[in-house]
Every structure is written in structure tokens, then in C-alpha cells.
């Protein structure tokens, strides 16, 4: 706003009888003027724009410009006096000085980050500037500043502080059925987006398991949190629940047991039926837990194993044992062979342990035409005896034993009688699998009880 100034110049004129001399902006006569102290208008009546003139005259308060009158100059509020603060009406009909009032202003206020201000009367005295902040920010400090009489602003600049927390919304909670044969499920979701009134970009932090990974059975709490640049915090959470569908627990068959995959009775788990020594499976060998929480098929049974010894070929005999039993073929020149008699005695005492290990003993004795072959009391045909000797190269001239696994493969040969502990140790270590060994540990005392 332009500053308007009014300069009051007060000039006193008087008649000179002779030439004049100028000094200090006033003209002095060479000769003493003719003074008239009674003239009420010796000097021009003083005035001061935007200010006040207070005069004291020797002739009394009613006179403002008589000779010798002294006037005090003062400016209105918001104006500064420039010039003389006190003037006197001199004999030369002039005032002893001049003055004017200049409007005072404050300096332009700096803008505050994330804020603005508006002023009532610009930058002049008594103008009030009110501060406001952008959305998401709040004033900290004084809300306004006033231009003071000395030309300075009151108070100190305020700050716009970010106090509005960001906003974040998590995805809805979800339920997922565990995958077949597993106790976990892969669950995915889109990460939430966060917004803030102050910051355009925010870092969203996941507290918990990553999406697209395997989540375990039950409730899994997933949390997200976000901070803006002012460290205002927001958070949300949701639940990922994994359900494992389960079938009723299958009872093991009498004279047998079950081996189940996964957790035993969860959706997709497979339970295989197994029979103890001397028994074989009747029915479906395994069952699977379905999504509807029911087992497929019907339960299997373990029935006493029936061996047909009157078959005509060795393959017909071996097929009965395939994947069910192991064979220990014992051969001797005759029944009176001392190695055979010793081994036969030890085999009879170890009969229970052989059953636990699913081992069936086949005896081949003598030479044709008196050669015999038997499984316990069941006699074998000559064709089967000859087939066994040829396939597994079993001699008739000396004592020997051949151990076959469940697939009919030759695993070991013995040419001298073998104690039960040594035989069982070999079978347990090299022929049985881990599951069978664990099962054997559970029933190791079975033979002692019988």
C-alpha cells in the first residue's frame, strides 16, 4: 500500500526594512522587526495529517499561532513522526521546524511449510494475520500474529504438524481347507493400500506370514502397520483360518495294524492295512480319507494265511508269498545230517520270531527218488522241489540256507548252522524296512509271553 504523506510546512512572512540573511532554513532581518505580540495569527495555524498538534501560547490556551507559541507534534497510532517533535512560532513569522506522520508497516511474513495465512489489514499496525494448515496438519504454537506499533510482529512463527494418522484397511478374514494329504494350505491375498492426508507414498509393513505360503491348521493372525513421515501410525489385522477336514480314526484290523500317511485321518491321508505273521490281507489293501470326511471302500481283514503246497510249478508256489512273506530255504543231504539237525532245532525254537519277521521256512531234504520238500507238514511236489533248486542253485550235496526277500530275491546264503540271534540280526538290519523295524519293537516281547 503506498504511503501517503502530508508535509505541513509552516511559513511565516514578515516585512523587511532592508536586505535579509538566510540561515538554518529561516530568514532573519538585518534590522529588528516590528513585533506585535498581540497579533493572534503571527504564524500560520499549524496542522499535522494523521497526527495531533498540541500548542501552548503565552497569551493563553485559546491561541495557537501567536508569537512565542510552542507546539508539540504527535502522530496517531500506526504512524511514526518524522521531523521536529516540538516547534515554536518565531519572530520571523515562521515555525522553527517541520514534521509529518508516516504510516508504519511490518515486514512480509514468511510462509510456513504446509500452511498459509490471511491478514485483516495487510501489513499495517494492528493488522492480525491468522494461520491455517493444510488438511492433515494441525497448528502448533500461536494461531495468529499481530503487527505491533513498533513495526514488529507479535509472537513467533507457528508450525504445521502432521497429526493425522494414515488410513489402512486389511482384506477380510478367510477360511481355507487344507490341501489333500497336508495339514497346511497355501493362502494368498492382495496387500492393503494405505492413504494419508499429508504423505503421498507410504511404506506398508507386514507383521506375520507372507501371502502365498503354507499356513498351518487353525487361526493365523496377519497384521499390517504403516507409518507416515511424522511417525503417525495406523494398523489393521485379519485372520487366515486353515481347516483340516478329518475322517473318523480307523481301527486297526484284528491280527494286523495300519500305516497311515500325513496325519492319519486328514483329508487325503492314506491308511494301508498290514497283517501280523501267519495272516494275510482280505479286502482292499488301503483306504483314503475323502473330502466329505468319509473313508473310501470297506475295511480289510487279516485272515489266517493258507499256503497251497499241492501246486505243480515253482512260480505258483512263490506267487503265494510275493510281497507277503520272506522265505528261508533250508537244504540238507538227508534228515540225519548233523548241521541240519542242529539248525532245525534252532529254527523250531525261533518259530515265533520268524513269524514276527514274516519268514516262512521251506525244507528240501535228500536226493531223488527219495527227495522230499515241505512247508511244515505240507509236502511239495517234485516239480516244485526241482524248480526251487534250479532257480536258486541249491545243491543237494551239502547243508545250506538261502534267505529270500518278499520280492523273491536272493538276499543271503548260509553254509553252516546259524543261531537265531544272528539270523534275526541280519534280517532286521538288511531285509526289513524302517516301518517294519518300528513295528517289531512294539511286539518284541510277544514271543516271550507265549
Automatic annotation (TrEMBL):
<protein>
    <recommendedName>
        <fullName>Sushi repeat-containing protein SRPX2</fullName>
    </recommendedName>
</protein>
<keyword id="KW-0732">Signal</keyword>
<dbReference type="InterPro" id="IPR043555">
    <property type="entry name" value="SRPX-like"/>
</dbReference>
<keyword id="KW-0037">Angiogenesis</keyword>
<dbReference type="GO" id="GO:0090050">
    <property type="term" value="P:positive regulation of cell migration involved in sprouting angiogenesis"/>
</dbReference>
<dbReference type="GO" id="GO:0051965">
    <property type="term" value="P:positive regulation of synapse assembly"/>
</dbReference>
<feature type="domain" description="HYR">
    <location>
        <begin position="161"/>
        <end position="244"/>
    </location>
</feature>
<keyword id="KW-1015">Disulfide bond</keyword>
<keyword id="KW-0768">Sushi</keyword>
<keyword id="KW-0677">Repeat</keyword>
<dbReference type="GO" id="GO:0098609">
    <property type="term" value="P:cell-cell adhesion"/>
</dbReference>
<feature type="domain" description="Sushi">
    <location>
        <begin position="53"/>
        <end position="103"/>
    </location>
</feature>
<dbReference type="InterPro" id="IPR000436">
    <property type="entry name" value="Sushi_SCR_CCP_dom"/>
</dbReference>
<dbReference type="Pfam" id="PF00084">
    <property type="entry name" value="Sushi"/>
</dbReference>
<dbReference type="GO" id="GO:0005576">
    <property type="term" value="C:extracellular region"/>
</dbReference>
<feature type="domain" description="Sushi">
    <location>
        <begin position="245"/>
        <end position="304"/>
    </location>
</feature>
<dbReference type="InterPro" id="IPR025232">
    <property type="entry name" value="DUF4174"/>
</dbReference>
<dbReference type="GO" id="GO:0045202">
    <property type="term" value="C:synapse"/>
</dbReference>
<dbReference type="GO" id="GO:0009986">
    <property type="term" value="C:cell surface"/>
</dbReference>
<feature type="signal peptide">
    <location>
        <begin position="1"/>
        <end position="19"/>
    </location>
</feature>
<keyword id="KW-0963">Cytoplasm</keyword>
<dbReference type="InterPro" id="IPR003410">
    <property type="entry name" value="HYR_dom"/>
</dbReference>
<dbReference type="Pfam" id="PF02494">
    <property type="entry name" value="HYR"/>
</dbReference>
<dbReference type="Pfam" id="PF13778">
    <property type="entry name" value="DUF4174"/>
</dbReference>
<dbReference type="GO" id="GO:0005737">
    <property type="term" value="C:cytoplasm"/>
</dbReference>
<feature type="domain" description="Sushi">
    <location>
        <begin position="104"/>
        <end position="162"/>
    </location>
</feature>
<dbReference type="GO" id="GO:0001525">
    <property type="term" value="P:angiogenesis"/>
</dbReference>
<keyword id="KW-0130">Cell adhesion</keyword>
<feature type="disulfide bond">
    <location>
        <begin position="133"/>
        <end position="160"/>
    </location>
</feature>
<dbReference type="GO" id="GO:0005102">
    <property type="term" value="F:signaling receptor binding"/>
</dbReference>
<dbReference type="InterPro" id="IPR035976">
    <property type="entry name" value="Sushi/SCR/CCP_sf"/>
</dbReference>
<keyword id="KW-0770">Synapse</keyword>
<keyword id="KW-0964">Secreted</keyword>
<feature type="disulfide bond">
    <location>
        <begin position="275"/>
        <end position="302"/>
    </location>
</feature>
Amino acid at each position: 500500500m503506498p504511503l501517503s504523506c502530508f508535509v505541513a510546512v509552516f511559513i511565516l512572512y514578515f516585512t523587511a526594512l532592508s536586505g535579509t540573511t538566510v540561515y538554518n532554513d529561516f530568514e532573519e532581518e538585518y534590522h529588528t522587526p516590528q513585533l506585535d505580540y498581540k497579533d493572534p495569527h503571527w504564524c500560520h495555524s499549524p496542522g499535522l495529517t494523521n497526527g495531533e498538534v498540541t500548542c501552548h501560547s503565552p497569551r493563553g490556551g485559546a491561541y495557537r499561532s501567536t508569537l512565542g507559541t510552542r507546539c508539540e507534534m504527535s502522530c496517531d497510532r500506526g504512524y511514526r513522526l518524522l521531523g521536529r517533535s516540538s516547534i515554536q512560532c518565531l519572530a520571523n513569522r515562521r515555525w522553527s521546524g517541520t514534521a509529518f506522520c508516516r504510516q508504519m508497516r511490518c515486514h512480509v511474513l514468511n510462509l510456513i511449510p504446509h500452511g498459509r495465512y490471511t491478514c485483516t489489514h495487510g501489513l499495517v499496525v494492528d493488522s492480525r494475520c491468522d494461520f491455517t494448515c493444510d488438511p492433515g496438519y494441525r497448528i502448533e504454537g500461536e494461531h495468529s500474529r499481530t503487527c505491533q506499533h513498533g513495526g514488529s510482529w507479535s509472537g513467533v512463527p507457528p508450525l504445521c504438524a502432521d497429526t493425522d494418522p494414515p488410513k489402512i484397511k486389511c482384506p477380510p478374514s478367510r477360511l481355507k481347507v487344507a490341501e489333500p494329504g497336508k495339514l497346511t494350505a497355501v493362502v494368498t491375498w492382495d496387500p492393503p493400500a494405505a492413504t494419508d492426508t499429508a504423505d503421498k507414498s507410504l511404506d506398508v509393513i507386514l507383521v506375520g506370514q507372507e501371502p502365498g505360503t503354507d499356513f498351518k491348521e487353525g487361526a493365523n493372525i496377519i497384521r499390517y502397520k504403516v507409518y507416515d513421515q511424522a511417525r503417525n501410525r495406523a494398523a489393521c489385522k485379519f485372520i487366515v483360518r486353515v481347516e483340516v477336514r478329518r475322517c473318523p480314526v480307523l481301527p486297526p484290523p484284528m491280527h494286523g495294524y495300519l500305516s497311515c500317511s500325513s496325519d492319519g485321518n486328514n483329508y487325503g491321508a492314506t491308511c494301508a492295512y498290514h497283517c501280523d505273521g501267519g495272516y494275510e490281507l482280505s479286502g482292499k489293501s488301503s483306504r483314503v480319507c475323502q473330502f466329505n470326511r468319509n473313508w473310501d471302500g470297506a475295511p480289510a481283514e487279516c485272515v489266517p494265511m493258507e499256503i497251497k503246497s499241492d501246486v505243480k510249478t515253482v512260480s505258483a508256489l512263490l506267487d503265494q508269498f510275493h510281497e507277503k512273506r520272506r522265505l528261508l530255504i533250508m537244504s540238507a543231504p538227508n534228515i540225519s545230517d548233523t548241521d541240519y539237525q542242529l539248525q532245525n532245532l534252532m529254527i523250531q525254537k525261533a518259530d515265533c520270531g520268524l513269524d514276527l519277521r514274516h519268514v516262512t521256512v521251506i525244507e528240501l531234504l535228500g536226493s531223488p527218488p527219495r527227495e522230499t520238500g515241505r512247508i511244515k507238514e505240507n509236502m511239495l511236489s517234485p516239480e516244485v522241489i526241482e524248480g526251487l533248486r534250479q532257480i536258486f542253485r541249491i545243491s543237494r550235496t551239502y547243508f545250506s540256507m538261502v534267505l529270500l526277500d518278499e520280492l523273491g530275491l536272493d538276499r543271503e546264503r548260509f553254509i553252516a548252522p546259524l543261531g537265531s540271534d544272528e539270523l534275526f540280526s541280519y534280517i532286521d538290519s538288511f531285509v526289513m524296512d524302517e516301518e517294519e523295524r518300528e513295528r517289531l519293537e512294539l511286539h518284541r516281547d510277544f514271543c516271550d509271553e507265549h
